[in-house]
Every structure is written in C-alpha cells, then in structure tokens.
Amino acid sequence: LIYIFKIIFLMLIFSGKLMNNHLKVNMHQKSSKEVVVLNKFLNNSFSEFTITSCKPPKPDCLCKFSNGERVYFELSEIIDQNLARKFYDENLQFVGGFFSDDILDRRIKDKFTKEYETDGLNVELLLFFDLQPLWPEKTIIEQIKIFLSSMQRSPFSKVSVFDVQKNNVLFQST
Hints:
Blueprint: H1 2-15, H2 29-42, E1 49-53, E2 61-65, E3 70-77, H3 81-88, H4 103-112, E4 123-129, H5 137-150, E5 158-163, E6 168-172
C-alpha cells in the first residue's frame, strides 16, 4: 500500500497536479515533499513565487516572490520517528511509539541549534503536520509560544505551523 502511495505521489508531482506552473522541481524525494508542502503553504497568501530546493548548509528551500524579495525556508515534519521510518521505508516494521508530547519540542530544538548559511537573507521555519495525527490546535499554539518565549536567540525571522491535510496555517509567530 505504501509503495502504491509513493508511486501515485510521484506521478502527481511530475504531472504537475500537486504544483503550480511557476514551481521548479529538480530534487530527490525528501526535497520534493518539502517543495510540495511549501508550495501549498505559500499558496494561502501569495499567487506568484518560485521555489528552489537547496542543499546544506543552506536552509531547505529558497523562495523568490514576484516583488523580488527572497526568503529561505527551513521545513520540518512533525512526526513520530517510528511512523516516519515505516512510511518512508517499506522494509521496516512499525512497532508503535505513535506520539509523545515532546516530538514538537525536539523538532524545534533541533532546528534552532542548527547553523545555516543564509547569504544575509531571512529564514523562516515551517513546521508541518502531514502523516502524524494532529494535536488539538490550542495545545500546539501553547507549546510553541512557551518554547519561543524561552529562546534567547533565534535563527528564524518567523515560525509557522501548517496542517498539510487541511491546508490550514495553525500558528505564525509575529
């Protein structure tokens, strides 16, 4: 079943069904998912932009908007690692560990401690839920606000949380 989903997903990507005609794609599967998610997220607010996948030490994607502004985006899926391994590698057995309260904290801490090469451009962090069952929205917002208030320094100009399945922005820092 997972294999069939992957084939359908890739067919949709390459047929352009999951992307606007202004989107450039030239990357491996993880990067492809990041570009698709970022495209869906940005389409909530912008009509014209170009997304280019980047390699470390740069953030995941560079977005150029129609007004000429360029912004990097670092993306991270909020998902239990056992579930992720099972979904992304059909040879592994899923043995539980479905969700714990610190998944979001660990993911944010991981991203906040990384060093990024940004060429002086702003970097936004986009945390997203796709395969992982979503927490109550209020819980997510409270947990992120607590974490962000405890941080002395941030490499990110903005932090957003996005529900891919519902195409809904759950949180954006100010």
